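User: I would dearly like some help making sense of a protein record. I have put the entry right below:
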Amino acid sequence: MKYKKKYLPLIVGTAIAVGFWLGGLFHFNTETNLLTQSSKKQKLNRLIDYIDYEYVDEVNTDSIVDVTVNKILENLDPHSVYIPKKNLTEVTESMNGGFVGIGISFYMRKDTISVIRTIVEGPSRKAGLKAGDKILLADKDTLYGEGITNEKVMSILKGEKNSEVTLTVYRPSEDKTSKFIVKRGMVALQSVPIAYMVKEKLGYIKINRFAETTYNEFVKKLTSLKKQGMENLILDLRGNPGGYMDRAQQIVDEFLEDGKLILFTKNKREEVEKFYATPKGRFENGHVYVLIDEESASASEIVAGALQDNDKGTIVGRRSFGKGLVQREMKLGDGSAIRLTVSRYYTPTGRSIQKPYSQKNGFDYYDEYTKRYISGELTDSTRIEVADSLKFTTPKGKVVYGGGGIIPDVFVPIIIEDEYEKVRFAVNSQMTDNFVFDILEKDRRYYSNLSKSDFLKELEISDALVEEYKSFVRLSTRNQLVITAQVYDTEIKHYIKAAMASQLFDENMAYQIKNVDDRMINKVVEIIEKNN
């Protein structure tokens, strides 16, 4: 791995594109009758038949069809996409909120599968597996050595519900190898993984994507925090690429009074469909602070736009991505599918937040982060380009703009400073997990016996451990990433401890530790204290 500051915008842009591919659903899956005969269809069928039966060489016409479908969709818009058969199951599982497996978090460490943690109430925990275990065999399949990938491991460990797999496991703490029979079961993929009280009366909920289970997960978290006395809520939608439109509507409904417009859509026939809030809102009297950034898109922007246009709550952060197109998934009959853009959506004031696009520069569309980086808008809100022709006014007189994302009410810049970017790159990489795993392995018994309260109160990350971490990063990157300044050592300590919490306990505790240094969350706390 080679660290280059100039590559960071490219990495972010690519991540955004992948996020959209996984999280671009907007409507329930809908079958469309495509059997109508036409000369265009007959022409394509005839071409494939000629290649199949007459072409001089053997050709995989399936691959030709895939390329053709991709090329057709590429000439429409950036969000109309083709999902091959081999990828559809994975994408569907992600959006449905679960899959059948054995219920472990793992990663490859030195060519061996190391269990980071077992999922609570999951099949592996019930069978007796523990963090630190190394899985050597699944039935007769070898799961160590060169050539073993995460994809291969997942395909082996997944299976039919209630089917059994015998795992051969080496447990370093006991220095012995044992066999565990694990019955596969449903493993939840939480889309609302984090919820906790930041301080008295202030709660925090993180939504990663808008999947099938998102609304139910959200309501449970919201209800729990309200019981703990929450009156203000931080709703974190940063990095959220979107998902089901109706799940976004349901969540907005929890904040808006009955009859308030949430959004409306318009198709090519100029048919308009409007969506309104119902009487069921659980947080209509509370104040919500929505965190967004340049990777918040589609369903995330529906939530932020609906609340902003209804003068409900405060939008905090940086301008969102700018995706205002609605897709519908359509099966192609061979196990593959397309997501076709069928309409545009508009916020309650009538804003379209879809940014301009051209069929010829698809990557530039996703890599607009670089443009924002260069223009300076990520550090200076006055650099955000707005058009007077796209100016709208909310019921209380607040001016908002359409034409490319949601502009926040309260701007929080990123830090563009070389040493800081080095630290952020390192702490958010696999290197931190690898470093922490090695630390835990040195005394797994001690760490495993720590309670959550003891961990939070007693475990301190020393200056010496921070220096050890910096050396680990330098060696892991072959001297390409060298962290010298000490000004960010406190933040490094928080991330090391958060990675420990993630591996020993859960992501909820990890976020509580990391978020101590979160500038957007701290800005919300500052706003609340100022208002009080």
User: Anything to note?
Assistant: Confidence is low (pLDDT under 50) at residues 4-18, 21-35.
